[in-house]
TrEMBL record:
<dbReference type="GO" id="GO:0050661">
    <property type="term" value="F:NADP binding"/>
</dbReference>
<dbReference type="InterPro" id="IPR036291">
    <property type="entry name" value="NAD(P)-bd_dom_sf"/>
</dbReference>
<feature type="binding site">
    <location>
        <position position="192"/>
    </location>
    <ligand>
        <name>L-homoserine</name>
    </ligand>
</feature>
<keyword id="KW-0521">NADP</keyword>
<dbReference type="InterPro" id="IPR005106">
    <property type="entry name" value="Asp/hSer_DH_NAD-bd"/>
</dbReference>
<feature type="binding site">
    <location>
        <position position="107"/>
    </location>
    <ligand>
        <name>NADPH</name>
    </ligand>
</feature>
<dbReference type="InterPro" id="IPR001342">
    <property type="entry name" value="HDH_cat"/>
</dbReference>
<dbReference type="GO" id="GO:0009086">
    <property type="term" value="P:methionine biosynthetic process"/>
</dbReference>
<dbReference type="Pfam" id="PF00742">
    <property type="entry name" value="Homoserine_dh"/>
</dbReference>
<feature type="active site" description="Proton donor">
    <location>
        <position position="207"/>
    </location>
</feature>
<keyword id="KW-0560">Oxidoreductase</keyword>
<dbReference type="InterPro" id="IPR016204">
    <property type="entry name" value="HDH"/>
</dbReference>
<comment type="pathway">
    <text>Amino-acid biosynthesis; L-methionine biosynthesis via de novo pathway; L-homoserine from L-aspartate: step 3/3.</text>
</comment>
<dbReference type="GO" id="GO:0004412">
    <property type="term" value="F:homoserine dehydrogenase activity"/>
</dbReference>
<keyword id="KW-0915">Sodium</keyword>
<dbReference type="Pfam" id="PF03447">
    <property type="entry name" value="NAD_binding_3"/>
</dbReference>
<comment type="similarity">
    <text>Belongs to the homoserine dehydrogenase family.</text>
</comment>
Length: 432
């Protein structure tokens, strides 16, 4: 586009994020015009019910015909902030096929359908941007795509879900139960009416898939990510972690690993994790997000900030919108999908993890040896073993060195059937 026509924008969705995008675009349009090198105009806002007035949006911009809007000749860029998967997939594909660049904040859509979306963008020679899909305002996808394009990323690990971080942090600071703090998260508007995607780790798993794909130049989908949420974490787990010098965080962990045959693979997983109290991720409180990137030449980098909310998400959407608009005005494309490395994906069972286990055992001769034997016979080395007296026997707290996840899980199961072991509690993986 080399003439002076304004870049036309279609906004799909007018929820918390859509409202913030529209408002900030209107408030800062004069800045955007300078940064883009051309004018920008919203051509329409697609909503469910176009007859319902939306504060600040002229009635003539509202439409319930999203397909008609994205296919209009005067629309150059489509901003999708509807959420969900099937309906936005249909509209975004139509937009790309019609030659429109797309900016989306939709992690579930990108994590489930990145191959199809990237192919459609390539076919049409347009941009597909989704910085807001991971950790909202925190610029982490741009650095992975551009700033670290000259480096080899070894791992990306972090807190990428604000709701679960709020719940775990509140459980830690108040001693309250998971249910109480989930109710508090819902009351404060952090958790959705249906909080399943957050608390069961699905939201973080979508983000892990996107991070792993970009970091390792390998396509990783939502279904490839091992996912365990926080709904089973008890106040006792939090207390036991505290006593042992840890906090529990829901981490997304994406790594390059080398398997037993020396083959390099990619692993992506989400699960509650014990983090030592002095680890930087332990100090990430409330609903904040933080992401550690470890790269061969750069070393460790940390990104921290607001991972949710209207304005923070709109900040990332608008950054992408400016980039896509510049390309419309001046020509050129953003970096597309890079999957050239195409590394095999590791089974979760072969990924090296570390376990913390807390057991109630009989206080008698040979118990420690029986327990240690279960680890030794699977080649698992122990880092620390601590025994304390308890009301009805003894409490044994074991922290292992890294071993194959499958061997650790098998050991935890077999310990439960030992005569000397009354219960195995607080089986939580550990990092850092
Ligand atoms: N619900 C997410 C969170 C934000 O709690 O972090 C959007 O991904």
């Amino acid at each position: 586009m080399t003439d002076s026509k304004p870049v036309g924008v279609a906004l799909l969705g007018y929820g918390t994020v859509g409202e913030a995008v529209y408002r900030l675009l209107a408030e800062n349009r004069h800045h955007f015009v300078q940064r883009i090198g051309g004018d920008i105009e919203v051509r329409g806002v697609a909503v469910n019910d176009a007859s319902k007035p939306r504060d600040g949006v002229p009635a003539e911009l509202l439409t319930d015909d999203a397909v008609g809007l994205v296919e209009r000749d005067d629309v150059d860029i489509v901003v999708e902030v509807i959420g969900g998967i099937d309906y936005p997939r249909e509209i975004v594909l139509k937009a790309l096929q019609a030659g429109k660049s797309v900016v989306t904040a939709n992690k579930a859509l990108v994590a489930a359908h990145s191959a199809e979306l990237a192919a459609a963008a390539d076919e049409a020679g347009v941009d597909l941007y989704y910085e807001a899909a991971v950790a909202a305002a925190i610029p982490v996808l741009g650095p992975l795509r551009r700033s670290l394009a000259g480096d080899q990323v070894k791992s990306v690990m972090g807190i990428v879900n604000g709701t679960t971080n709020f719940i775990l942090d509140a459980m830690e600071s108040t001693g309250a139960s998971y249910d109480e703090m989930l109710a508090e998260a819902m009351r404060l508007g952090y958790a959705e009416a249906d909080p399943t995607a957050d608390v069961e780790g699905h939201d973080a798993a979508s983000k892990a898939a996107i991070l792993a794909s970009l970091a390792f130049h390998t396509r990783v989908s939502y279904d490839d990510v091992y996912c365990e949420g926080i709904s089973h974490i008890t106040a006792e787990d939090i207390e036991a972690a505290k006593t042992a010098g840890y906090v529990i965080k829901l981490l997304a962990i994406c790594e390059r690993i080398v398997d037993a045959e020396g083959v390099e693979k990619v692993s992506a997983r989400v699960h509650p994790t014990l983090v030592p109290k002095d680890h930087p991720l332990a100090s990430v409180k409330k609903s904040f997000n933080a992401i550690f990137v470890d790269a061969e030449a750069a070393g460790q980098l940390m990104f921290y900030g607001n991972g949710a909310g209207g304005n923070p998400t709109a900040s990332a959407v608008l950054g992408d919108l400016v980039g896509a608009a510049r390309n419309k005005v001046h020509g050129g494309r953003a970096p597309g999908e890079s999957t050239y490395a195409n590394l095999p994906l590791a089974d979760f069972g072969e990924v090296p993890t570390r376990y913390h286990l807390d057991m109630e055992v009989n206080d008698r001769v040979g118990v420690l040896a029986d327990v240690a034997q279960q680890f030794a016979q699977r080649g698992i080395s122990l880092l620390t073993v601590r025994q304390e007296g308890s009301d009805n026997g003894a409490r044994l707290v074991v922290v292992t060195h890294a071993a194959r996840e499958a061997d650790l899980a098998d050991t935890a199961e077999s310990l439960k059937s030992l005569d000397a072991v009354k219960s195995v509690n607080n089986v939580i993986r550990l990092e850092g």
